[in-house]
Amino acid sequence: MSFGTNQLPTLVFFPGLGANYRLLNHQASHFANFIIPKWIPHVPEESLESYCQRWAEKLRFPAPFYLGGVSFGGMVALELSKYLNPEGIFLISSCRSKEAIGETFRAQEKLGRSVPDALIKPFLETVGLGILSKKEKLAPPEIDNLKKMVFEIDVPFFKWSSMAAATWTHGAGSVKVNAPVHQIHGKKDWVIKLREGDPDTLIEEGKHLIHITHADIVNSYINHIITRNQRARAG
After folding, report:
1. Chain centroid, CA 191 distance in Å
2. Confidence band (pLDDT; 50, 70, 90) for 2?
3. Which of 33, 90, 109, 191 has the smallest C-beta neighbourhood within 10 Å, fewest atoms?
4. Which neighbouring-strand residues pair with 18?
């Protein structure tokens, strides 16, 4: 990997709904200075905007740094960018506004409200992972990794984040973020709708977990953007 001759930037990435560092294994093992912050405790019924505003007060990263995220994590990155000063924002299988949020997120929010806490993990491990592995055609090692992640899920946080994503108010005409947005998306994403003109890079056969199924392409995309920016800064 090459980021030019300047200081290596810090990459701060956030995983998706109920997920943790395991979701970003392919990126964490590829990039130096890659940080996956641990989620802070939520306040019941608080909005995603309020959560990120509280969190931003505690986050400090050495400059230069980029924010990024997968799916729900991209929404978090966008909200945090309003209070931090990143060089750019990477959206992987994510969205720039609430208009792209599809029924999958709303279904997860309904799941959180209707299924008892004790049944959330068993449901996600059987039904949820079954659907995910079939749609994404995941290899056995990837499925095993996601099973471990499901076992580690904080159920109250999963339920809150499902609600926060489904009720996110960041619209296409809302407050602008403080950095350029770089978006890569699967053309066959079945979770977050593809909005014409939003992604600057599309993966033809990509679905929702392109950071896993097409990790080399996603990592090359991130590397290309950062290297280009480093060279521009160097003159």
Report:
1. 12
2. very low
3. 33
4. none
